[in-house]
Write a structure and sequence with these properties.
This protein is an all-beta fold and 297 residues long. Helix content is 0%, strand content 48%. The chain has one domain: YVTN repeat-like/Quinoprotein amine dehydrogenase (Methylamine Dehydrogenase, Chain H, 7 Propeller).
């Protein structure tokens, strides 16, 4: 690693294949000094350290250049010059691992707790516009209840129930209209083709299921030679049909992290076309938004 023109230059030219916003939880094996980065042309051109305690887990760059992110015990939006322009602190005993932009003014938050609630909040007023109370396996097991949830194009809520081992779609009035078994589901994304892309937290898998709940495409823990899946966190489908996998290594001893890949891009034929492996600056991968092309995430 060397310093170059105001930015850290990553050591491998392969990193220049994509520009991306990168954040991950449990960096330095703690919830303090958590950092997110923007990488362009193989260089870390922007970084931000969360001044508060808490894991980074859901990060998005908005159309105006601001960054919206979850920080375990709350959520924030910052400008490129790192000014906080919106802030939400969760009540005591709750955790927040989803902070997803519904539109320019509204944000979807998943508030783990007892009870667990999904909230749509107007950032201009911090008023809760919509609320879902969601079932959990262990109401007091706050940390393990949910990670990413999303809203579909129809306005329904697509929920990865990590502790219940399933993905469920709810209408705005809370009615369950679709579900599929998905052990330790960390994230679920409704694709433009109507299918749902799911990641597996503990068993290390990526799975695409159709509206009937049938698996039409999947990658399991040892399907990629030399690149075992660990704890799969965010997954996204790229415009070219490839899939980007966040292969979180935080469950391993930190001495083993340099032997693992943080990001993996695979084709529909399961050919690996790009990997990210840098432990000098970047930590474990939880959430990655590509900035050089659209993706479904």
């Amino acid at each position: 690693m060397r310093f170059f023109a105001g930015a850290f230059l990553l050591s491998a030219t392969a990193f220049a294949q994509h520009s991306f916003l990168y954040c991950g939880e449990w960096q330095h094996r703690s919830t303090s000094n958590q950092v997110m980065h923007i990488v362009r042309e193989g260089k870390v051109v922007w970084s931000y350290t969360n001044p508060l305690k808490g894991e980074l887990g859901d990060c998005s760059q908005l159309a105006n250049g601001n960054i919206l992110f979850s920080r375990q015990f709350g959520a924030s939006e910052i400008t490129p010059d790192k000014k906080i322009v919106w802030n939400y602190d969760g009540p005591a005993g709750t955790e927040i691992h989803t902070t997803w932009p519904v539109d320019a003014d509204r944000v979807l938050i998943m508030r783990n707790g007892n009870p667990a609630k999904a909230l749509v909040i107007d950032k201009r007023t911090n008023r809760v516009e919509r609320e879902w109370v969601l079932p959990t396996r262990v109401p007091t097991g706050t940390h393990g209840q949910f990670r990413h949830i999303r809203m579909t194009a129809k306005g329904n809520l697509l929920v990865a129930h990590m502790d219940l081992g399933k993905v469920v779609e709810y209408t705005p009035d809370g009615k369950e209209v679709w579900s599929v078994d998905a052990p330790s589901a960390w994230a679920a994304v409704r694709l433009k083709n109507g299918n749902t892309l799911i990641s597996g937290n503990q068993r290390g898998y990526v799975r695409e299921v159709n509206p009937k709940g049938e698996t039409v495409w999947e990658i399991n823990k040892d399907d990629l030679p030399g690149i075992p899946l660990l704890t799969v966190q965010e997954v996204s489908r790229l415009a070219n049909g490839n899939t980007l996998i966040n292969n979180w290594a935080g469950s391993l001893p930190s001495a083993e992290w340099p032997n693992t890949f943080q990001l993996i891009e695979v084709t529909p034929a399961k050919k690996v076309v790009w990997t990210l492996k840098d432990w000098t600056v970047l930590g474990p991968a939880s959430s990655t938004q590509l900035l050089d092309g659209p993706s479904e995430r």
